[in-house]
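FAQ: What does the model actually see?

It sees only this:
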Amino acid sequence: MTAQLARKIHLLLATCRPACCNCSTCRRMVQTTAAMFNFLLKMALRSRPPTRAELASAEVLVTTAPLLGSTLYSLPRLQWAQLTFAGVEKLMQFYQPDKPAPPFAVTRMASTAFSRELAEWVLAAVLGHERGFGRLWAAQRRRAWTQSTYTYRPVSELTIGVLGTGQMGREVGLLFKKLGCTVNGLSRTEKTADDAFDNMFTSDHLSEFLRSADYLCSVLPSTPSTRHLLTAARLADLPRRPVLVNAGRGDLITERELVAALRVGSLSGAVLDVFENRAAAGRTANSGTWSRWVTISPHVANLSRPELVCAAFLENLERFTGGRPLLHRVEWDRGY
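And it is asked to produce this:
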């Protein structure tokens, strides 16, 4: 994928220049980009990874969180690193709060298109569960005609609770609002309702938020404040017995707590694209509890496709060369 990404960046740099191409901004962008891109392309088109000396000479990197993390405190010339994925927990594993924060900027992979693709998966998860596609496919395999026992709720009658109201959460909210749903958002800070959310809650009102939802749709990152935010105790006695749809990070709830909530009926089901322990999830996917109440997908809610990474990088590159603030910058103290 790295070589493919480098070639696409090369193509976009060649074809997406503005018509003027002689203005000072364009010349500065080309000059700043040339050395960085040659380094990126050279690294991408060979089999071996870059050496520490080569990384130490870089001023701009397009990289993964683990690679950047492994050299986090040995990049003396680096000014900006663009990550190719949205999650930064594998980068934060290398961050040492007792040391000065790295002096360079780090930006996450994010864009409206990337967020919209995740929102589409969330919508598919809700529709698939509400319309009972799994049960229909099982009935088909049994050659059973189950029309007399088939029921569902119109989507417009559902209340959708979205955990996380940043760019991804907002795209989820907008999509469900278009279908007539009531959409509530859970945010780290106080926000007012808008075109994506009918009501906004903070973590201080988590219980009220949980009680309001038919579907709990999480797009939260993995941070100290979101890790194990949901527990069996917090999910107990919810009147609507919601379905958990998790497209954020798997450490929102432990597997033990999730199973406990499913067994007592606090949750009526779960659709998961992320897991705290992916290997354990694979081993238990066909266990009684999971096969009855849980649908899983292998972390494919939205993929960091090369064209999306390129577009995100180039948008920030224009900002970088123009001296403007970068989008989706990682905040070390927040862990995201």
